[in-house]
Amino acid sequence: MTATFAILKRELLTYFVSPLAYVFLGVFLFLAGVFFYLGIALTGEASLRVMLGNVSISLMFVLPMLTMRHFAEEQKTGTFEMLMTSPVSPVAILVGKWLASLTLCLVMLLGTGLFVAILAYYGDPDWGVVATSYLGLLLTCGVFCAGGLFASSLTDDQVAAGMGGIVLLMPLWLVGSASSLVGEEWQARLDHLALLPHLRSFTKGVIDTADIAYFALLTFGFLFLTFRTLESRRWR
Amino acid sequence: MIEVEHLTKRYGAFTAIEDVSFSVPKGHVLGFIGPNGAGKTTTMRVLTGFLPATEGRAVVAGFDVFEDPVEVKRRVGYLPETPPLYRELTVGEYLRFCAELRELPRADRLRRVGEVMERVGLRGWERRVLGTLSKGYRQRVGLAQALLHNPPVLILDEPTSGLDPAQNVGVRELIAGLAGDHTIILSTHILPEVEALCAQVVLINKGKIAAAGTMEAVRAQAAPAYFRVSLDAPGVEPAAVARAVGALAEVKVVQPEGEGLRVEAEPGVDPRPAIASMAVGRGWGVRGLERTIPTLEEAFLSIVGREGA
Ligand SMILES: Nc1ncnc2c1ncn2[C@@H]1O[C@H](COP(=O)(O)OP(=O)(O)O)[C@@H](O)[C@H]1O
Ligand SMILES: [Mg+2]
Questions:
Q1: Which of A173, A230, B130, B283 is in Cβ range 3.0-4.6 Å of B85 for a Cys bridge?
Q2: Could you tell me if B93 lies within 8 Å of chain A, comparing CB atoms?
Q3: Is A236 within a domain?
Q4: CB within 8 Å: B101 and A236
Q5: Which residue from A minimizes the CA distance to B74?
Q6: CB of B48 closer than 6 angstroms to any ligand 1 atom
Q7: Domain match, B211 and B174 both
Q8: How do residues B48-88 score in pLDDT, each as one tens digit?
Q9: Which domain holds residue B274?
């Protein structure tokens, strides 16, 4: 626990003493603002639904860029050697790093509260839906951060880790829009694998255990793969 | 304190170290030397639990590295070849982070960080950003990190590489001060440093141990001791003096060296009494008769070969 917390603190310190965190917040909020505006302008509907759907896609591109350094850089600079020769388990290291990126996601999502406030000023949002939508987005961030960490553990090259992370996560989006290739019947089955349909129920105000299980399983799966990679890297 | 038995490590098909065995008694400093690529870092990584060995066994501070890695890691301080620093953190932030990783009780952390900073000469450097430090100061921070939890065993991979002579002396004195309380393995390219600090030496070449033992044994094993002889024989040709010395049964080889002669004998034979009585018998004076042990550097070169060094 102490070690996980130490890693979490150290990662957050690194985020916020470098321009990194601020650049991410800025880019993310700008994208979210554009989607928010387009969502209202195109649908004429005072809802967060469109923005949140699009935000989840931009997260797929932004978060691997955030997580790419987590292991890649430590392998390159040799700090990884220090971590692995301290009496800390790889799981604690992994979870600390994942929590750190998730904390930054939380800050990013809090920033979009501005748009909710604008909606609340002009209309009357359903607060229950707002809450479940954010829960869904946070779960999505959990999956993306875990996938990004996995990509980062595979290489000591940050750029490769970032690109690899995006390529790794893309299928979660693409399988959701493959109907022209596989037909409607198969698409209905593939929708179980795709991320957006699971997120959609959250943005409708529905919390389904099947959806939660989907996100939890993916997150755990990616973290487990990362753990295995860290262990096996040392055998090479 | 450290027992290494038949350690072999392969990277894929490449054998980095093969059948390496040695031991270090408690409180001793072992000098771990060898040319670049000999396998020093690999051996140290195995001992610190960073890399698993392919074959063999290692016991450090009473625990098997492969069966109880966490217990070993608790008792080892490790300075890797490149100090493992987070460039964006300050010295203080970094060492406090290390103190947490090292499971120091909350109440002790700040005190310990202050103590090790004092010890390695980093007093007043707490707020400096690691990325802006010079090589010598980075090395000190790396050492501070290794000392934080006051480990009984220290494994230092080239702690003086890239330092200027004054910094070198500083690190050497620091290590000398740590010996006794700590069991230390020290790898380095600077052989006089090993001669100054280490009672035990392991010389590794191409992944195998080429020589091991006490400093004297390794030096003698590499090249036998020889004798410097200087006789005062007025009116006698130097070649005739050399012939007279070479005629003695105890002497194996004679070569002119500077003003005098370089004399080699069979191992264990001391030709000095015979040379002295021969000289006295002929009425020659004896200016000098001294036994010379090759330096570690000479030993290193004779074992590793000049092209490998
Ligand atoms: N991760 C690795 N994969 C493959 N070969 C390696 C790896 N690390 C080291 N080696 C090789 O193992 C040999 C020993 O390296 P090393 O232990 O670093 O030597 P030293 O520290 O004595 O200079 C070298 O030939 C090096 O190229
Ligand atoms: Mg080395």
A1: B130
A2: yes
A3: no
A4: no
A5: A87
A6: no
A7: yes
A8: 999 999 999 999 999 999 999 999 999 999 999 999 999 99
A9: 224-293
Q: Using alpha carbons only, what angle is made at residue A117 by residues A112 and A120, rounded to the nearest 5 degrees? A: 135
Tell me the CATH number at B272: 3.30.70.100
Q: Which of B73, B85, B86 sits opposite A87 (nearest CB)?
A: B73
The per-residue pLDDT for B160 is: 87
Same domain, B106 and B247: no
Helix axes A20-43, A49-67, angle to 10 degrees: 160
Q: Which residue, B198, B221, B244, sits at the end of a domain?
A: B221
Look at the pTM and tell me if it is higher than 0.90: no
Q: Give the nearest partner residue to B73 out of A78, A86, A236, using CB atoms.
A: A86
Distance B37 CA to ligand 1 centre (A): 6
Ligand 1 in contact with B132 (CB < 6 A)? no
B16 with B146, same domain: the answer is yes
In a domain, A54, yes or no: yes
- The pLDDT assigned to B222 comes to 64
Residue B306: per-residue pLDDT: 56
> Residue B307 pLDDT > 60, yes or no?
no
State the smallest CA–CA distance between residue B145 and chain A in angstroms: 9
The rounded percent of chain B whose pLDDT value lies above 90 is 52
Q: Is residue B262 part of a domain?
A: yes
Helix (H) or strand (E) holding B157: strand B153-157
List CB contacts (< 8 A) between A81 and chain B: 45, 50, 78, 80, 84
User: Is residue B54 in some structural domain?
Assistant: yes
Asked if B157 and B80 count as a contact pair (C-beta separation under 8 A), the reply is yes
Give the rounded distance of the alpha carbon of A32 from its chain centre.
Answer: 15
Q: Whose CA is nearest to atom 7 of ligand 1?
A: B11
ipTM above 0.95, yes or no: no
DSSP letters spanning B53-68: -SEEEEEETTEETTT-
